Structures are given as C-alpha cells and as structure tokens.
Amino acid sequence: MCIVYLIAFLFSLTSEQCSSKLMEDSSQSFMERMHTGKTSFIYFGNHVNPTIKLFMEQLEMSADALQDYGISVVKVNCSKDAIANYCTGEKLMTKAYLFRGSEVLRSFDIDTVFDVNAIVSHVLFSVLFNEVRYVHTPAELLRVESAAKQNSDIVVGHIPVLGLPEHRALMEAAFVYGTKYQFVQTSGTLVLKHMGVVDLSSSQARLWFLHCKGVSRRSDPCPSTPMRKPLNTINIHTFLQLMEAPLVTESVLDPSEVDVVHLHLGVPVLYLFSQPQTQHLDRATAQTLGLQLRGEVGLVLIHRDSPNVKTSLKYNAAYRLPQEDVKYFTLNSAEGVVKLFKEELLQEQKLENEEEDEEHWSDLDILDDEVSESVYRDRDLMLDLESVIELTSDTFQITVTQDDITVVLFYFKWDAVCMAFIQSYIEVADALEGMNGVKLAAVNCGEWTDICSDQNVTSFPTVLIYRPMAAAQLYRGMLGTKSLHRFILLSLGSSPYILSSSAEVMSFMEGDLYSKHMYLTPVRVLGLFSSTHDMGVTSFEEAARLLRGESILGLFAHKEAEQWVEGLSVNLPALLVSRGPGVPYEVYSLPSSSPTDLVSLIKQVELDRFPELTVENLPWYLELGKPLLLLFIGKEDSTESTKALAEIKQPLSSGQLDSFLPCWIHLGRTPVGRSILEKYLGFVPPLPVLVMSQLKTGEEVFLFPPERPLMAKNILQWIHDVENGQEQPAGLIPDGKWGPPVPFFDFLAIMDQEAPTYAVQRAPKMKTGGREDHRENKHVTPNQKQTPHPSSNPQAPRQHSEL
Fold first, then answer.
1. What does the pLDDT average to over 452-479?
2. Helix (H/G/I), strand (E/B), else coil: 461
C-alpha cells in the first residue's frame, strides 16, 4: 500500500491530468456525502472575486493531489444551494472545512491554506493528527523516543513555517510510511538545539531518522542520522530506503559486479578491500565510515581472499558515483576517504541548494553536545602540531625514556572525538612551551599500530604520562584544556612532598609551599607517621604516586608528628587536611591499608562539606548516596545569594544536616545547572532557589516554598515536613541513563574502572616490567574527628568533556 500511494504521488507530479478532480456538491449530494464516513475538504462560497479566484485555482490543484490519499476536495456554491450553518454568516467565503463523514475535524482560514502545498500539508496533518506527534520541547521528544524504543524507528521533521512545500513533503511521507515509522513534527528551536544544530537562525527545514527499534536496552539513547539533502518527497523516500539498507555490505565479488540498493537510489558507493589478517580492524573501520557517511554513501567490504576478486593488490579501496564506472584508489587514512566524498558530494549539494548548511558533514548526530560543537567548529581546521612531538616507532622509546616528563596522546585522525580533543591538547602544549622538564608528544595509532599495541592502548583518545624509571600513568581527567593543563602542572611537583620539620609542615599546609600551588587546588593532605620505619609509609608513598597530578600530598614521618594530633583523640598514623589559611585543619585516623585503599580514603577526605557542584566533581558527591539539599544561585556576590549560602551553613555547622549533602550550583560558572533545574521543576524560578532531591523514598524533587524567607529555621522546618510527607513534590527526576549513542564512539569507556556505579570501564592495562598494573577497589571508612565523610571510590569517574 505504501508503494501504491508513493507511485500515485510521483505520477501526479509528472503527468498531465485529463480532468479536474474538484467536485461540486448540491444540497442533496452534500447530505449524502455526510453519511459516507469518508474524508472531504469542502469550501463554501457564493461568488468569485479576484482573491477567491486564485484560491479556487489552488483548490482545484489540491484536489488532484489529495485524491491519491483518498480525500475528496469539494466546493459548494451557496448561491445555488444554501447549506445550513455553512452558507451563512461572516465565515462564508473565508473558511474551508475538513470533514470525516458529518464530523468537522477542523476549519481553516483560506489565508492559512493559501496554495496547493498549504492545503495538502494542513489537510494531511489534520487527518494524521493521532499518528504524527507534534512536540515543542526536547522532553516531549524524549518521551516519544522512550515509547518507540525496541518497537519502531522515528522520523523527526523540523518545519520552521507550516504550509510550505517541505511541510507537504513531510506529511505525504507520513501518510505513506506512517504504519512503519513514528513521525514527529516540530517547529521550535528547542528541539533543533537538542538535535545538535548549531545555527539556530537558519530557516531551513530538516529531517532526522532516529534508530530506536534496534536499541539493545531501553535505557540507551536512539542514535540519529540527519537527512543532508533538501527536504522534498523524492529525497525523503530515498533517505528512508537508505536507512533500511545495511550499514555495511560484505561481498566476495569485484566492485563492478556488486549490486547494492544504493546504486538503484542514485547514491555513491564506497568499496573497501579486507585482508584475512586484518579482517577485524577492517570491519571496525568500515563500521565507523558507515556511521559517518550514513544516508549519503553506501559501503561495501570486499574480502580480498575470494578467488572472484581480481582487483590489483596496489589498490585497497574504490568508489562509484551514480551513472559512472568504478574508480580505484589507495586509501591512506579513513579521514582521506571522508574528505574525498565530502568534496565530491558537496559540489553537487551546492548546485542544488547554495544555502545548505555545511554542518551535515560533521558527526553532530552521534556525539554529545560539547564534542559535537568542537568537531563542527574545527571541521576544516588544519592541525598545527608544531608544539607537539609526533612520535614514530623509531623515536618513541628514545623520547619516553629521557629525563623529562613526557605526556603522550594516542589518537586516530579519523575519529571525531580524538580530533575534538586534540585541539585542547595542542592548546596545552602551546601553554607549556618553553617550560623545563615536560614535553608533549602524540602517536597516530592509525599509522603506528605497533606502538599502540605495545602500550596496551585500546581506547581513544588516551593520554599516558611517562617518567624515568616509573610505570606509565593513565590520565583520567576530563577531555579538555583546563583539566589536562592542571594535571600536568600538578604532576611536575613531588608526590608526596617529603617534609622534615614542623616548620616545613606549616609551610606545606598554609605557608610558602602552600601558596606555590594554591591556584591549582586549595586542599593539602598530609600523612603523619612517627617514623620513616612505620609500615604504613610505603603504602602512603605508593598511594601518592597513584594520585600524582590529581592531589597535593605531603609526608611527615618524624617524632614531631605526634604534636599535630595532640588533643584530638587520634593516634598516629593519621591524615591532616588543610583547606587553606585560616580554615581549621581536619584530622583522620589512618588504618593500615593497601595503596588503593589509601587512594580511596584520600579522595574522600578531600571532599568539601558544602561543595559547589561542577561537572567534574558531581560524580564524587553522588557516590556518597545522600539526598541532595541543592541551592541554585546566580550572581555569587548578590545579597540574596550570599544570605542564602550563610543560612544553610548555620545548621550545617551544628550537625543538623549530616544526613544530607548540602551543596550549591553557580549558574554563571556551571550553565548546565539551569538545565538541571528546568529538568527538576519544568521551569526556572527566580534565584536563589533551594531544592531537595535524591531521596531514598523515590525520585521526587521538592521545592522550598518561594513565598517563605530562606532562613535556617525555615529550612529545617521544611526538611522536617518533607520527611514526614507533609510537602508535595514539585517534580520528578527523569528516568534515564547517559550512555554513548553507538558503541564505537564509547569514549566514556575509559572512565575509571574503580567507579562501577557510574560506568563499566575498559581502562587500558599498563605494562610495568612484564607485569600488569591491576587496581583493586576496596571499601575504606575514615575515622573522622571533625568533618564526617562517608566512603567513596578510589578514583573519581572520568567525565568526557570540559564544562
């Protein structure tokens, strides 16, 4: 049935019509029509003026088009047949009506249905009202996705102006394919931004295909593919056929003998030749290219070991443009073939539509927002690696075994995430240029696979830090300039700093030594031992090595160490924590533990009691498992914000909020906080605003009554009312998980393997003298004397993008 309707429509575009399909009803035939139950679009008029004449011409044209969809277009001459309720009053001649039997589905001003495209699009949209979902916000689209997962795929159309040819094309496609796909229409910029579009000022109509049917888990997002051609019926039909075609077709024939659906749809085809010994890697490359070129280029993987393949061994790839013969070439990198197709196809695209947005060649449809923005921004930027040493098999070992600290980035040039991150890496290299003791290098694993294999690098991008006579250290921070720069600067210092006197301890905790790195982190953690012969010293030194670049640690193994815990009911060994000059020290007992246990302990004692939440530290605080008492503020120095922060600190200092995690988000420094607040409540109320979430009883979010003063006693009373069920929730936390859209772009897979609550990791194993460095994850509970901190993970979960 879908093909019948499509052929009928295409025929109507190219055929001369012998007679008009516009009907004229009398009173009797109108009444008979009302009893048929069929759909009719009817216009009532009594005379023709120039404006109405133009409308009648369009109405006649729409009759030809709508007939193919089983919809009759009718006119009634009220001068001859006065139909009650329709041939009288002010609405006469200015309204048209859509009937299903005798029921009026909708009425239209003739200014709205001004031409054949507007008539067809509005009529079909009304007829398909229950089938085509109209969404205004990303939240509404996500609900449609949730319902469609594992059931059907989704076609999303963004139509800036209703009634234009693009709107008609979408509605005709929905009528034809509506039983196969869930169609969604939107016109606002919120959904446009959600889909990764950068230029929100463009008036271009757009279409996406959301691959929801094949998601393995309902918690996974639906990968999306944009249609990169103008939105018309032919292109939509071709695009949907391409979405049904295999991502990669495997063949044992020469390219000229391979028959794939793409050739019949007028779409270019790329052929890659696979060798038996590299078959797994070739398939992965083909899958990656298939995702990058999906919807525009077909991809065929040809097995070279087949006797039917006669192509010369000097070629490893070929392509075929529509109506042309196969052309062979040698593929040096996947990036090169993508560039080739971009140049070929974009020339044709520009001829068809010079204003087509070039962003469709980026990976916006399959990467998260921050990476997408970087990829789009730098899509045509030539990499300037002048400040980065490019390593080869001949230079790698010599470089990383020198006296300097060597930071090495392992990457693929054709991987979008790597190319987004490498810009940040170059910025760090430029910032550190001329600094003694550190150099930045890079290895292109597409060219030097032996190096990456020897270093057990399996996830990309990966950054390893090499020091003389030490195992390589994996960088686990955020993939951005600020975090990597901070990590490297912290790595330049000793870990731990060996202190030999109480004067040096004072300098480390809040004096000159403290000030040296104060701009990097305000927290200092000191290990106190009575002697260098203490059994725990070795474990502490190893823990400090593991935390190098993340924390600033000191070691004071001396008989004077006892003075620093005197009167605090804590015996040595112990941890002493400083948060800056003038802030009381915190002291914790230090049980005999393994290095990884100490890493866990140190990371948790560094946590603040009343933290400012950021993208980087949020996972650590969520690991505490406490309900959040979360204050959203705007300008930190405003009177309202300062007062709100002070009011929460009062019950915090007295221990009345120990069962909660009081925290705050500055929307200026952490813009994502506004999205969180909107997700919590459905709107953004005036700031400051206090909410409570992550309760053990459910996913409810409670809002501190805005009409009540934000004072300590009112906050405590409100918390009491919430706990006793006397407050109604203001919203719910959306149920969903944040994961990679497609497995190959799982750049979160290199988050810390010690944080299984947030991600199942596959961190590369570091070789150390023939041994592999396997890290454990054990539970340690600190015995705190001043500030209680529940247990946490030994390594903070890694985030994928800079805030």
1. 87
2. coil
